Amino acid sequence: MQKKFNSDRYDPLSTERDSLSRRHFIKGVIAAGTVAGAAGLMTGCSDNSNNSASSASVERLVTINVNGRSRPVDVMPNETLAHTLRNKLSLTGTKIGCDRGACGACTVMIDGVTQNSCSILTHTVRKGNVVTVEGVGGVNGQLHPVQTAMIEELAPQCGFCTPGQVVSGVALLQRNPNPTREEVRQALAGNLCRCGAYNNYINAIVNAAGSA
Amino acid sequence: MAYKLIGKDFTPQDVRPKVTGAGKYTEDFKVDGMVYMKMLLCPMPSANVTSFDATDALDMPGVFGVLTADEVPQVEEPGFPMLTNKPRQLGMPIAAIAAETESIAAEALEKIKVTFDPQPFVLDPLESLYPGGTNALDGGNVTGGNIQGKEGVGGNKIHDFKWTARDFAIAGDEKMPMGEAPVEWAVGDVEAAFAEAALIIDEPFVTASSSHAALEPRSVLSYWENGKCFIHGSSQSQSWMMPGLARMMNISLEDIVYVAEYCGGGFGSKASPYPVQGMTAYMSKKIGRPVMLRVTRAEEYHFGGQRPGFQGQVKMGFDKQGKMTACDLYIVQSGGPNRGSGDYSSAAGAVALVYTPTNMRFRGAAVVTNKPWHVSQRGPGQNQIACVIEPLLDKAAKELGIDRIAIRNLNAPEADVKFTNRNSTVTSMFLKDAFSLGADLFKWEEKKKMSGQRNGSKVIGVGVGTAYHSAGSNGFDGLLSIRPDGKLYVHSGVGNLGTYSYAGTSRAAAEVLQCSWDNTVVLRGDSRQGLPWTLAQFGSNSSYTNTRTNFVAATKMKKMLQRLAAQELGDAPEDYDVANESVFHTSDETKIMTFAEAASKAIELGGEWDGHEYPDDLNDVTKSAMKKVVGAGLVSAAKDKIPKEGSVPGMATGYCMIELDTETGKFEILEYHSVADCGTVLHPKGLEQQLRGGAVMGIGEAVLDRVIYDPQNGLCATVGLDQTKPPSILDVPSNMEMSAVDKPDLSNPLGVKGIGEPAMGCAAAALLCAISDATGIYFNRTPVDPDMIINALSGRPQSFKPLQVNT
Amino acid sequence: MKDMMPSFNLVQPIDVKSAINLLTEAGAGGWAIAGGQDSFDWFKDRIKRPHTVVDLSGIDSIKGIRETDDGGIEIGALTTLTDVEQNPIIKEKYGLLSTASGRVASPQIRNKGTLGGNVSQDARCWYYRSGLDCYRAGGNTCYADTPEGMNREHCLFGASRCVAVTPSDTAVALTTLEANMVIVGPNGERIVPASEYFIGPAIDIERMTVLEPGDVLIAIRIPAKWSGAKFYFEKVADRATWDFPLVNIASAMKVSEGIIEDISITCGAVECVPKRLTVVQDIVRGSAANEETASLAAGAASRGASALNYNHFKIPLMENLVKRAIRG
């Protein structure tokens, strides 16, 4: 009953199978494409000397609007918004729980719409208004009613998903000031909470609705 | 007793930073010169590294160093290595690289030339027990038990252990082979009891492994300053981490600084020091820079821990009234390539206590496999077995024509229960009160009548579930200081898992000293604050354990205040009482010292008053903390020596009604109610959180959470949250009701017991029972997926054999 | 094992023509992203490593929803799933697509992910996504279709070396609505019916759609034919959010006085392409929309299904969903 890993069929460390020879076309162009040879790719690719595309890549030095302020920042072409916010702008309230858009801990609003900042390139939001958990309250540090209600409801447990829940809740109240319990539930459907504080988050947002 | 603080809601200090995003988790720290580390993980389930060359990686600009297995302490099988050249699981770290950015580190990793010699691997414990079956580790396949040596459950040795081909042949595919058991105990005579039983239920079962999947992966930041090793960790525990980290780094306790103010969930997987913490600190030491390790979600699945799955057989005998007269339980527990946990043994203990079978035999084997590190997860053992036994108890009730709460009540323990071969006892027991309250609140009799009601393709199912955990410990230290600012400082070594028990238990000290909560400060989250020794924040123990430590330290503090006042103001200590942040003469209002005055006086006096002298029976961690507290004010440190006999039973019951669609296998949970026996309620909102949160995780255990490995090549199909499927907000009811019996456990000075773990098990069991009630099918397997329900209801066979794993 | 986005050049054209030029120029090293919700996974796994990523999100001409002269609608491929779900015209006339869009992944993903991206996403087979050298990845084996393969989510129909299924919720709706896909490539524009847009492994094992090098899906046109019909969409998945279908179904029926005059019905996650249930259509057309007709159709729907080790539940599930769609 011995099993051996079949190394002939699969060498996970090999990059050979990425070779271009197998790929003759661009696969499903929207949200899909073709692979390129891995060799030679370096960071700082805007000045990548072996770049096969003649068009210049995006300018790295950009200004993005975050929490009502214009923030100049040096952004790599492949950089996600979550990375920019956390590592370049020190807005660490935005959490990275999965980096794959599967948990919602990194939820921010872009022009009032919730998005997973781990799954957005910063360069695609240059024109947008980004609001993070740090920016939902008043300018003088007042809490947003959703935050106040979450404190009263003792909604957070470990707290890691909480910033995402706050942002989803605030965004909901902005477009629907008096949501039903079911509407709150649907609005939070992209925010996982492993501690299971879902009921408390719903309670808090419903409670906040009156005062928001 | 009328308490001022105990049993009242309050706002813990860390709630606001959680809702504003200001709370700093490990990944949120940034220190000067910090570089990032990434790990090279083993890409196959078992291998030996035959060559390793990092030259090209080290040549890359921005790369600061590589750390290999040769540079870190090695552990013997079945320990879990920090870095190894003999990886025995997919995703086990081989080496680490530190670079200016994570992107550079990731590219550098691809430049390391490493060759692996693939080794045989095994994922299914039964396969490993078959004659000639693969052993996951070089030294064998079974941990613990009485083989060769004489060590017990959870032992440190690994043994080569096989059943006979005849054991397997007799069992066939439908039953568990009954080979020799490494662990075995018995009470009474099960065979004789089966001979007389009115009803026998004899079923094989499988409970899946599942990942803890805390939302924060276990990131680490480490740096060295003035010979001290700083570690910022994501952990459930605070003081509990200290001795292990010191051993891991081979330095003294005094030289470890541990910071863990916030932790994004653990559920058992971040209870004790873990290898990547050491790895990061060794890298930092090697390259002389602060190092941040940001663990990714997939990595967390590989080495963040898994609940051990069970394969087993349970045979239960009942008399006509429904009393369980015999229980014969055999559990094979799956492990990773590590020592594993005592889940199987705890499961047996839970059966013995919750159902009090007159005769019982337990047999068990803990088998290692080439899957991830297996470790306790919320309700380790008790919750898996609740998922197995509870639906079968319903089956027995149905066949005997007994109400399902009645059969539980009939078999439920009283406070004088003696259980298992050790004749274990409990400190209190109010399970029957919980059933009675639960039946009322849930309106069991009414709901029961709805069971089986059909509406088109939908059918109603109703279920009740029970779970237990030994929820309290003793013998740890309490530490308090009253400072010249007039405030009471509670030094908490508990950790911050998100249960707020660090805060709830600190209120015990304020209660004893009649100090307002506004003037009570909890010091926590950073060992430089001077934090006393206490148990890890696991096993639902914190509420019980630390109300005791804070109670003893506060009682001592009160006596110190009385003595100090008597000494300074005259008369006897008994003439003084403590309240309103002062110690005052009970019949002479001119004789009064405020906390501020007492603190200043203590500093002036030194000696026993300000922490210069302290009891010798304190743990080394507390002694080390005293050095940071000394001279801060009036200081009280004490070890909890209050008597305690037996297990502290946290008991929870869950009641559930579902509407199941027979055409899709999907269902909606219409109602869920949980009633706990957790002693005196310490913190009502905190209790609600635990019961609700436990219910959500229990729903996951029953029907959603999974890990899947490919038997062909040992690869993992479940490395994302969309694949392991923890419950979302839409998979659970939008409102769940919670209540508690609220009767004190007299072994705790404030009557408190823990509850976090059974809160999960009772919900999982109640849901499984409701599914069985709706469908008439007992699946004997978790998670129950829609495909299992559809297959069963459409008269098709299941896709897997009864004891097959990895489905 | 790998989890870090590799470097690439990012270019952001503002019109379709330059996008196509950029893709053509980049050749095999090019990759177009719409919402990016599928692409970033491939990048972070370091399995797909384009030199040049062409971000289509700045091309306003391929966003938005408008009514067409023939009474149908045209949806720009870059329109987000949320906009599709909430659009009043779509809700009123093509509620099937609105419902299907609303069942994709999570709110955040629907706010970013596009309709064009959702119908063009790659196969979700976990072996393929692990970076294994399976047929679809250019190798010469299938890990799922073996005696021990973990293939609960895989196909019942149309296996041809590969057993992956279409994971899209909107694809079944669009197929049922007989939508047309507007594609622009280096050689100009062409229009492909949804039923031909999706391709199975027998036609090309390395892609899921007809898109060729340099092609961009710019719009989806829905004809007036099924406007206001009686719609049924259902997705059965393990979780109620952020999950792919175990099986999904989309149907449109024209019912008059209880008689099914016409029907279009498609089942997803049972084949590499949305499976048009033409046999079911033939059986029920002209029959009463009742349990009896539904049962008759359900049995025929799964005819020819070939189950793998762990997915035979999809046969009764598919039959039940057909039944539910038809009995209404």
Structural features:
heterotrimer; A: 212 residues; alpha+beta; Ubiquitin-like (UB roll); DNA polymerase, domain 1; 5-stranded mixed beta sheet; 6 strands; globular; B: 807 residues; Aldehyde Oxidoreductase, domain 4; 8-stranded mixed beta sheet; 7-stranded mixed beta sheet; 22 helices; 22% strand
Low-confidence stretches of chain C: none
Number of strands of chain B: 31
End-to-end CA span of chain C: 47 Å
Say what oligomer this is: heterotrimer
Structure description:
Chain A has 212 residues and is of the alpha+beta class. Among the domains of chain A are: 61-135, Ubiquitin-like (UB roll), CATH 3.10.20; 145-209, DNA polymerase, domain 1 (Orthogonal Bundle), CATH 1.10.150.120. In chain A, 23% of the residues lie in helices and 12% in strands. Chain A has 5 helices and 6 strands; from the N terminus they run βββαβββαααα. Chain A has helices at residues 81-88, 145-152, 162-175, 181-187, 198-209; strands at 32-33, 61-66, 69-74, 107-110, 113-116, 129-131. A 5-stranded mixed sheet of chain A has the order 3-2-6-4-5, sandwiched between helices. In chain A, helix 2 (145-152) packs across helix 5 (198-209). Residues 1-54 of chain A have low confidence and may be disordered. Chain B is an alpha+beta fold. Chain B is built from 22 helices and 31 strands. The longest helix of chain C is centred in the last third of the chain and has 14 residues, at 314-327. The mean pLDDT of chain C is 97. Chains in contact: A-B, A-C, B-C. Chains B and C meet through helix 3, helix 9, helix 20 and helix 22 of B and helix 13 of C. Strand 1 of chain A pairs antiparallel with strand 2 of chain C, so a sheet runs across the interface.
